[in-house]
Design the sequence.
């Protein structure tokens, strides 16, 4: 199941304009960037992912479903959200959140092409 989740995230991310997979720092888990700026990171144990979110989204998502969403360490204060990955993952929702994170990170001309 973990490998399936990582592969689905990879497919979603790599379909976006300018996206590339590149580890973050000394970590071995996949992370995804556009123009060398992170927009998705997967935890080392592959059970969670973090991504940028639109202003106010973190509060709404964590407040509505704290079993699924959380405020991640290190980047939570910047509005990023964490998502726990398991059998109940809503992949349409995840794809939409990834696309928003990418659009917030990509140069405007790349984001419009997606």
Sequence:
């Amino acid at each position: 199941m973990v490998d399936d989740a990582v592969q689905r995230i990879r497919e979603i991310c790599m379909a976006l304009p300018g996206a590339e997979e590149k580890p973050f720092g000394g970590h071995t888990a996949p992370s995804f960037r556009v123009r060398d700026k992170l927009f998705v990171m997967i935890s080392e144990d592959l059970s969670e992912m973090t991504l940028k979110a639109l202003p106010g989204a973190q509060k709404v998502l964590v407040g509505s479903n704290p079993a699924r969403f959380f405020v991640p360490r290190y980047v939570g204060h910047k509005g990023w959200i964490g998502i726990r990955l398991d059998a109940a993952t809503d992949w349409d929702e995840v794809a939409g959140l990834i696309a928003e994170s990418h659009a917030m990170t990509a140069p405007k001309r790349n984001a419009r092409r997606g």
The longest strand covers residues 37-42. Residues 35 and 107 are 8 Å apart (CA to CA). The helical segments are 2-14, 57-64, 91-105, 108-113. Strands lie at 19-21, 31-34, 37-42, 48-51, 69-70, 81-84.
